[in-house]
Amino acid sequence: MSIRSYWPLALVLVSWAALAAPAAQPPLAKGPIHISADTLHAENKPSQQATYLGNVIMTQGDVVIHAHKLVIDALQGKVQTATATGSPVSFTMSSAQRHGYGDTLIYKPGTAEIVLQGDAHLWQEKNEISGQQVTYFLNNQQTAVTAAPGQRVHSVFYPAAANRSASGGRP
After folding, report:
1. Which CATH superfamily is domain 34-156 in?
2. Could you tell me the superkingdom of the organism this chain comes from (predicted)?
3. pLDDT for 121 beyond 70
């Protein structure tokens, strides 16, 4: 077989490797969830739900989310989902050197997922992927991207600096 027949597989492997982080990194979103906002409306019955409005900042570990509105849905006092909306909503994870934005962000602490929807973008350093929906799995640091109907996903990957060895150190 020629190298042309392996090109699509090589592209997928390079794309995955460019956004993968070292396996030895600790989990990114552990510990208590802290939220600050201009206002809060909460109810415990019939469901446990809290709605934060205005300049919302939510943190858990090194995950930081900024939004206009954040709705927390809980079950028996445990957060099931945190749905953030904004123009756009954004997040950062300093230890993984990632940041992203979208129209909506759904954070699922139980499964350690961040789902960006609507004009979704995710960066690791300068490398970027985008589509209609980007799902980032915190525990294994994998990414899944889907496009809107009739559209395509996009990626931009920058080569490693020429003065670094394959291990990332200086020669």
Report:
1. Lipopolysaccharide (LPS) transport protein A like domain (2.60.450.10)
2. Bacteria
3. yes
